[in-house]
Each structure stands twice: as C-alpha cells, then as structure tokens.
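Please, does this match?
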Amino acid sequence: MNSVEKTLVVLGALAGHDQPRRLADIARRTGINKTTVHRILQIFIAQGYAVSHGDGTYASGPAILALAGAALTDRDMTTLVRPILENLQRNTTHTVHFAIRSGSSAVYLAKVESQQPYRMASRVGTQIALHCTAIGKAILAHLPEEEVRAVLAATAPLISNTPATIVDPALLMAELESVRQRGYAVDDEENEPNVRCVAAVAHDAAGTVVGAVSVAGLTISLNKDDVPLLGPLVVAAAARVSAALGRNA
C-alpha cells in the first residue's frame, strides 16, 4: 500500500464512522501502523479533515463536509440557511454572510446584501483567512486548542492585511478566549480597512464546527457602539442555522 492509498484508507475510516475513534482502533481496522496513522491524522487535523477531541479520539472534520458539500449539498445547505440569513439582514440592515470552514480557511457559501448604498466586496465562493476575519475567529474559538495550533502552524507566518491584523499567535489565542467569553467574534478592520464584522459559530448535528454567520458593514454605518447590540442577534441566527443543520439545543 503506497502513501496515497494509506491516506485514503485512514480518511475512509474516519468518514465512514459516526463515533470518534481511538488511534489504535484506526490502526487495527486499517492495518496501518500507529506511527503512520498518527502522522496522517496530524495532517488531516491541520487541514480540517479530522478533529481531535483531546481524549485520544479522532473524528472526521468539517473539511470533509466542505468536500461533500461541493459535490452534493452546498445548494441544499444554502436553501436551509438562507431564510435565516435574510431575517438577520432585515433585523440588522447590514450585509450577512454564511461561510463554511475548509481546512485552514473558510469559504463564503451564502450572502445577503444590505440595503445600504454600497456593496461589500465579498463574493460567494471566495476563500477567507481564519485569523483575521470575524467568521474565522468564531470558527477557531470553538476548535480544540491542538487543532487551532495546527491550523496556525499550517498558515504561518500569519499575514497582516491591515495595521489592525493580529499576527502574533499568542495574542490571537488570547483573542479567541475573549470570543468564547463573549459568544461572538469581532473583526475591527483586521481584514479590510473601514470594514467591521460580527460573527458567531454554527455546528452540525454531530456538534462539529461547520462555519459561522456574520454581519458586516463599513465602519461609517456599523460603528463600535453597534457591536454589543448586534452580537446577540448574530449568535441567535447562528444557533438557528445550527438547528437547521440538525444540531439539538
């Protein structure tokens, strides 16, 4: 069995089971030694194809969902979440996005434009970084620390898009703790100048982080005083998205 075949066999062992598996179990079922399985799993974790639960067990990650979605369910997922996004847009008047995680980045799956006299530059299908966007920080904040560090290592050095971008991993980890405490993430001109965003994480039926919902606007219309008011609305919308994807409260 060559290296590609081993990788695919391990991937199949993860994707083909609905419960987390221990490394030894994966090795036994695939016939691949534990050292090789561990190395493959670390690559999968860094790219989002596997998640580590911190107790020695592993499960398939959201990037597998992203792959499947590209072939089968993107339109179905968009159909499920779009009414929620449209409602959030009406309640906030700002542009609303839903993005799914894909490895070390996220991809816009749906967008509902605001009625403002400007249009955000974002487009469905565009990849965005995790470290400097509200969507990305909402996603990272709810991943296991080991997985976050693997993602940051895979994208090192962190790129500075604006003077406000957090590029120090230690500062970013502290920011992610603030996101967890608040319940939502904020991008305060960290990805684009003059653009502010608020985002909250969404999960699937298995509790896996799928992506995030965000509200975005120019800083002239979405000011800092608006953020504490928008945060709970975005969190509630993300919870409805999670429910639409099968997540139980």
Q: What stands out?
A: The chain has eight helices and nine strands.
